[in-house]
Amino acid sequence: MTKSPDRAPLTREFFDRSVLEVAPDLLGRTLVRRSAAGTIELRLTEVEAYAGEVDPGSHAFRGRTERNGVMFGPPGHTYVYFTYGMWHCLNLVCGPEGRASGVLLRAGEIDVGAALARDRRVSARHDKELAKGPARLATALDVDRDLNGSDLFGGPAPALSVLHGTPPPRDLVRSGPRTGVGGDGAHQPWRFWIEGDPTVSPYRAHAPRRRPSTKAT
């Protein structure tokens, strides 16, 4: 039986391109998460591009470290990081090997496995909130650092993979500044989303952390 075109997996060559080509092209694609608990399929609705050593907003801006090493390739792997001591975030590595870049998966609509996602996201008031934001997306899919460096093409049933899905019409793709990015990388219009989709997360500008005052009162 022939697979429907939208069920065909993307190729590694898809990810072996500039991050600014890959990021908007991921919108509408189907992210598949397989685990012992079951399978979840999610239609990507919001992403952000990070261009490594030329991007002040990227974890790889100051070069390669133990933490960000997977961002330097090869393409088609996952970069998972832990933030604020609480949350994981999922990125897909792209671009030529040796040049760090990745796409942060910010939001999506769960098409398959919503019951499983609800069990992991008990605070969600509606299904549209299950993966509305990068930490929520990772939580719904049970993504943690154990999946860092996972190969999207690692065998017939990898833990994470991406199917062709149904990309939106180009006139529905929007771009703007990345959420929560400050400094010299604050104004790059490298956040991409599907206009009008209810699962897209709200934009928030960077808010510098303030240290507690040490003055006596």
Any overview of this molecule?
The structure is a single chain. By secondary structure, this protein is of the alpha+beta class. 12% of the residues lie in helices and 25% in strands. Strands 1, 2, 3, 4, 5, 6, 7 and 8 form an eight-stranded antiparallel beta sheet that branches. β3 (78-83) and β4 form a beta hairpin. It is globular, with a radius of gyration of 17 Å. The model has no long low-confidence stretch (mean pLDDT 93).
Summary keywords:
single chain, 217 residues, alpha+beta
Task: State the order of secondary-structure elements, H for helix, E for strand.
Answer: HHEEEEEHHEEE
- Report helical residue fraction: 10-25%
State the end-to-end CA separation. Answer: 75 Å
Query: What is Rg?
Result: 17 Å
C-alpha geometry: globular
Fold topology:
Blueprint: H1 12-15, H2 19-25, E1 30-35, E2 38-50, E3 78-83, E4 87-93, E5 102-112, H3 114-120, H4 134-140, E6 160-163, E7 173-176, E8 191-194
Antiparallel strand pairs: 1-2, 1-6, 2-5, 2-8, 3-4, 4-5, 7-8
